[in-house]
Amino acid sequence: MAVEWAPPAYAGFSGREGFDTPTVVALLVAAPVKAACLWLILRAPARGPLDRREKALRGLLYLAVADNLVLWYPIALLPDAVDTAFQLALWAAIDVLFLLVIRWRSGMLRAAAGAMFAVELVVMTDELLDDLDLPELGAAGNVAPILILGGVAGILITVIGQWRDGRWSRGTLTAGWLSVGVYALVLPLDILLDTIPGDGLAVSVLMEAVTLVSTVWIAATAREMPKEDRLADLPPARQRAIRVAVAAVAVLPVIAQIHPEQAAHLTHTGWSMGCYDRPSFGDLKPEERDAAFLCLARSRDGGVPPIFPDSLSDQGVLSYARALCRAKDRDEQTAILTRAGSARPAWGADPWDLVYVCPEIIGATHPELLRSTAEKKAASDAYLAERNASCRDPWPRTKGVVQATATYFLFADGDAGYLVHDPGDPAAGEAAERATDKVYDDSAGIGVARSAVLIGHVEDVIDLCLTVKALRTAPPRRTAGWDQVNEVPIVSRSGRLTVPEMGDGEVGAGAPMPNLAIAGKGRYRLRVYVRVGDAGEEHLVVVFPGASRKRVELKRWTAR
Fold first, then answer.
1. Across the chain, which distance is largest between two alpha carbons, in Å?
2. Are residues 215 and 55 in contact, defined by beta-carbon separation less than 8 angstroms?
3. What contacts 49, CB < 8 A, 6 or more positions away?
4. Backbone phi, psi, residue 233, to 5°
5. Can you give the pTM of this predicted structure?
6. pLDDT attached to residue 362
């Protein structure tokens, strides 16, 4: 597997077209390099006593070598999260054992190595969280450069520790120094590969051969561990120089990741995982609220421009948002959004968005926005119970086989009324549409379309009291106390007739509605009583079996 003449499957190259001259030269150079590296890797380990930590480190290092040469292929067939978890567990154990086994001869050097190992493991943990679609630690946007910088610094400090320990040969240390160089050249070589015309296969072949140096260093580190050679104490001046170099290696990669405050830190965007749902304020922990607002502020849901531009940093977005909370009116909000570079400054910002940033300000005027999902549901249930309790059965002495009384909410713009329909009819949607079309042409405001009847409201109201009853026979034709009474035919094809209930939206009956088709499939008569009084608009719908297809007007509405 180390000597490979046929390259792996690169994009757009199958191996059948033949190689160009640079690729042939690269293969001829790579073959002996890989063969030499493989010979160095497979050398037998040195003999000598090892304690438990050293034995464990040797075994894990050889496992890392096997992963680089062989195990990567079967692991690549598994989900990405499995590979990332394996790498994280393997190198976490190796790094800990490096700290315990290598005789660092300097507490500062050991601390620097621990810091670099920690950076590398944090980035790998972030990769694992990303693969599992879990909330990340924050480094996901810069995984490649951080991982490379951490890898360079980690190998460099480890090789320095091996040099000061004295148990490893000059060849092993040389392989370690070369590994540092290979890691440092990963990004430049990737950029070079992108700029080379053609498929860049020659550079890829050489990169694969060169990266085996790291595997040689890992194998040599495991092989030479029993040696007992020690270095003499270094002069104080050289010790100080080493400390300065180690401190620079440890600190500079961290400094490189610190951006100026005005740089855009897009840790949350409108396309980030978890940004597709609007969480209730009361369901979030305090540390999660800023992230929720950043999702909303950069959302492009429905093709609407975001509140703030993508070029504005997280810190800038939150700063402008807090200024919006303190704005006195819409004009001041418009001015703030204009300064922020918003694509929609005239729209201002809504309190249900700003509540995540300044709950103490928004909550003073809109306390309902501070509720959790459970609190919202409890408040909604209490409101519905109160509204339903305000409606009374207009025929309390005439008991139906099934019946219900509730408030029917008509919040939808242009809502013509409410349906009594057969939801199990295969043509239920078409019947509802035809009933809606007919209601506007009917003098009584009732649209009939076989299995659907749409009953309109007679006044401009947002809700009405609705009572439905199912009787076995037709009730007396009494109209006293009602402003309008009409009777129409309706058909149940599935054995069901009911009124839509309020779901997640704002339209529908506020309480469960019964099945009014008490005789099963067949034809029914539907009588509608309507009146308007101090209690608002009231409707009584009575359904009973009947084969007649006639429409009967028992009492006509007279406008007041």
1. 115
2. no
3. 226
4. -60, 140
5. 0.49
6. 93
